[in-house]
Amino acid sequence: MALGFAGNRGKGAAMILHAIADFHVLGESDDWIVVNKPAPLIVHPANGKVEPNLLGGVETLLMYEMENGAALSIITRLDRETSGVVLIAKHRDAARDLSRIFERREARKEYLAIVHGWPKFDTWTSDAPILRAGEVGPSPIWLRQMVHPEGRECETGFWVERRFLREGREFALVRCFPKTGRMHQIRVHLAHSGYPIVGDKLYSGDGAEYMEWMRDDWTPALQERLLLRRHALHAAMLGIPWGGREVAWEAGLAADLAEFMAG
């Protein structure tokens, strides 16, 4: 994979960064840096596990700024398996101001998802409330969310960009417009609409694929059922008001998802 950098940081920085994480820089200012994160790169360290992560990679890229007081804060977190645009504040004041933009729902976000089936309509909206499954009953998967009348307010708009066939099976590329920022809301709303995301271990069914993956790792049986090793979700665009104007960044569909669509 290639690396993209903002500014001339030299071959030494590139070599160090490549050993930590692989990503492309989409834009940078004194207040923030925006990158295109590949899957399955994790955003930040978790559970004490030592592995390449986006935060560590950006800290290495910005080593000069870090030595001079920068304090990075990831504003738009993506799941390990979700690729695309990530916004990172460089200092505490920027983190506060950016967080308020998202709290006021002034940011524009667009995702691309490859789903099973051909949606009946070209556009639709899901406002089904969601909550963690474990809040209403026993659940072996702590992260799994579900639609429930007692759930939190949640809204996502959908627009079908393309319907296509792959080995005789129906799939669609759907652009997703989340109005709220609940955990897994796009994945839950698409599954609830009857069009689960390809490769989604948690929401393609009842979560059995996730449990099987955790127990046995990736297997030919999972490959046959899920088709992709990761869920086909990509953060394609992010726009925010900043400095009296809107700034926006786009990341083209990840290569593995484009390859799936090409058959």
UniProtKB/TrEMBL annotation:
Citing just one GO molecular function, the answer is:
catalytic activity, acting on RNA
> What PROSITE patterns does the entry give?
PSI_RLU
Name the Gene Ontology biological process terms. Answer: enzyme-directed rRNA pseudouridine synthesis
Ranges where the Pseudouridine synthase RsuA/RluA-like domain occurs: 31-192
Q: Which CDD domains match?
A: PseudoU_synth_RluA_like (cd02869)
- This protein's source sits in the domain of life called Bacteria
Q: What is this protein called?
A: RNA pseudouridine synthase
